[in-house]
Request: fold
Amino acid sequence: MHNRISAIGRRPTDLPLFSPPDIRTVRDTGLSLDLLCDLALRIIYYAGTITAGEVARRMGLPFGNVVERALESLKRQLLVEVTGGASVLATSYAYTLTDKGYNKAAELIARTTYAGVAPVPMDRYFEAVKTQSILGLRVGRDEVSRAFSHLVLPRQILDMLGPAINSGRSIFLFGESGNGKTSIAETVARIFFGGYIWVPHAVEFDGEIIKVYDPAYHFTVDPETFGLSTTDGRWVLCRRPAVVVGGELTMAQLDLIYSEATRYYEAPVQVRANGGILIIDDFGRQQISPRDLLNRWIVPLERREDFLSLRSGQRLRVPFDPLVVFSTNMEPTSLVDEAFLRRIRYKIYVPDPTPEAYTEILSRVCTAQGIRFDPAAVDFIFEYYREHGIAPRACHPRDIIEHLVDIADYTGVTPALEPELLRLALDSYFVPLRKS
Reply:
């Protein structure tokens, strides 16, 4: 395993330092033969009749000397029988359950219905996360500038974001709604998207199965694209994940999620985000209080590991390796006290755009819409702001121009930054303050 020092200086575009080791024997899997036999039996149960090669493919493990041994053990126990084969190749032999096998499978399924890719032992998952940790990633000033070039941000914010990303610690983005906090967080995610990590389909602890891989967050790439290969199909090469949760987040989602229907566990959001970024959007508007959320994560944020609960009450130690970004339009001190804020390492205020920044944003929006830009439009809009007591926001140029285009299309005129169209767009976008 690579140590912490060997990871320093890695670029986000580098391939992972960790590689799944080749599997040649049952011992190499880190799992017991009994666990592999039980998994193979459930796979055969659900398939009805299935070839040995297909059993191996579904388990994500080599046939020779691994799945082969599990099937031989099942045959010796009279739990399965061979019903045919297209050739002399052992992988082509078709298997089905005996009556004794059906009874055994029913007992197993009463405990768990899991019949997917074989899990990875928790200690090996820990090793993989540590080796591929975000703490080893580095971005430079030019890299950050290029990544955020689609946004109009003060240099001061970019120079705060760079060190925050390199720290791998938590980031607190705050400021008024509409000034680009979510866009900033998503761009940070794209910086990490340049890197790749190996993610297991599932992990195993004390006989319990926990699904980790989630196609909603883990976007796979073909290892052969990078000249990589492994005989351990339990791992998937993915882009570093970006997990976004908002007001729907509950305390239950931060722990193992057990399904009574499937009788196995789903990993919580912070585990799915390991090696990538976890964005808590609209922080302070979740169904759990900010204090409770930070209380829950005080230890994980500092020690890079978390503790989850199994149904039995047993506590399970898991790695905690996402870059956590809290984004809010609420005043930080109204959410948590100073002691809590200290534990969120980087606090970055995203201000309202200056007139110069607003002009640049409006110019870019007009170019994208095919409208000739006129600097006088900015003066017109800011006069409207003063008249109605409105503060400028970074999202306004996009929204105002979209309104203007809709109005022009409806009235049959060419979209342009003319006072009449602008005022109609502004009146339909904002709620004017009426004087009594």
Summary: The first helix runs from residue 4 to 7. The mean pLDDT is 90.
